[in-house]
Amino acid sequence: MNSVMLVEKDDLEELEEPFDSDDSIEDRDYDPAQDEENVFAQLANTWTTTPAGTQKEARNTCSRKNGYKWSTLPINDGGCKIASRNIVYIRPGPTNSAKYAIEPIDTFNLFFSDEILDEVFLRTNEKIAELRVRYKTKNATVSDTTLPELKALLGVNAFVIYHHNATKNRQEPLSRLNFMLKLHEQLTKPWQQIRLQTVPTLSRGLKESLSTLLHLPRAEDRRGPQGKGKRTYCSLCPTAKKRMTTTNCYKCERALCGEHQIKICMECGQ
Fold first, then answer.
1. Dihedral through CA 61, CA 62, CA 67, CA 68, nearest 10?
2. Strand partners, 248
3. Closest CA to 123 of 152, 145, 141
4. Region (Disordered): which ranges (predicted)?
5. 213: closest CA among 235, 195, 237, 238?
6. Residue 181 DSSP label
7. What pLDDT score was predicted for residue 42?
8. How many CB atoms lie within 10 A of CB 81?
9. For residue 177, what pLDDT band results from cuts at 50, 70 and 90?
10. Torsion-angle region of residue 267: left (phi > 0), alpha (psi -120 to 50) or beta?
11. Of 179, 191, 178, nearest in space to 150 by CA
12. How far, in Å, CA of 189 to CA of 172, rounded?
């Protein structure tokens, strides 16, 4: 039993001995810490060779959100070990004309050209015409869509380009909600102008709202002095008086008799 234990102990001692062989491929003079210092020294030398704030530095480096800069050019260090996959060959972000898209409407047009929208607009109305014949009730209204309505349904991907360009230009970007609201305003403005000019049955309140959104003069500011209208009862007098008048209010167009009128010049009325 004792002999067995001695054998096992000898085996363990033999295994714990350091491995020493001429067949080893390990470089005894290799120091990983020294190699790492050479890498960082070379990177620091590369970034400091170009003065800060120059156009050359902007072309040769790519800054990340945490402030770290990646070189876009290979580093010639004379034998220092640097993996080529760490070199950034293609700068991230929008390219060509997309780099200059700042407004929401400009970024939207990058994704949806007029030719694409015209094709979608045509096929959508063809489908609407196909479905329209299936409705037999008088209350069903299936009308054709319009380009402003179609554009209002699109635009989420445009926020990505807008946010990147705003950050690159050191501008405070809008939130996604405010971006969509501004894009909605810019896309619907042509349709609002069409409605205001071509739909005579709009209510007075809706006309005023559209004029405010389009930064146009209010309806009452566009009207001239009111002439004599149809003879009718004063809207403010009691019914028992039955006072007739042909004068209407400048704003609300209600009939007013002389008792409920005031005289004011054009300059004071502005």
1. -70
2. 255
3. 145
4. 1-33
5. 195
6. H
7. 55
8. 9
9. confident
10. alpha
11. 191
12. 25
pTM of the prediction? Answer: 0.33
Residues with Cβ within 8 Å of residue 7, at least 6 apart in sequence: none
The pLDDT, as a whole number, for residue 207 is: 84
Task: Give 90's DSSP letter.
Answer: S
Per the model's pLDDT, the better-predicted residue between 142 and 56 turns out to be 142
Of these ranges, 40-44, 53-57, 127-131, 239-243, the one predicted with the greatest mean pLDDT is 127-131
How would residue 50 be classed by pLDDT, with cut points 50, 70 and 90?
very low
- DSSP one-letter code for 86: G
Please report the pLDDT score of residue 111 as a whole number.
73
Task: For residues 30 and 24, give the distance between their C-alpha atoms in angstroms, rounded to a whole number.
Answer: 14
More reliable by pLDDT, 41 or 62: 62
Distance CA 260, CA 255 (A): 10
Contacts of 130 (CB under 8 A, 6+ apart): none
SS3 of residue 70 by DSSP: strand
Count Cβ neighbours within 10 Å for each residue of 144-158 and write b for 16 or more, e otherwise. Answer: eeeebebbeebbeeb
* Distance, CA of 42 to CA of 109 (rounded, Å): 44
Name every residue whose Cβ is closer than 8 Å to that of residue 59 and which is 6 or more positions away in sequence: 72
Burial grade of 256 (CB within 10 A; 0-12, 13-18, 19 or more): buried
Name the residue type at position 38.
N
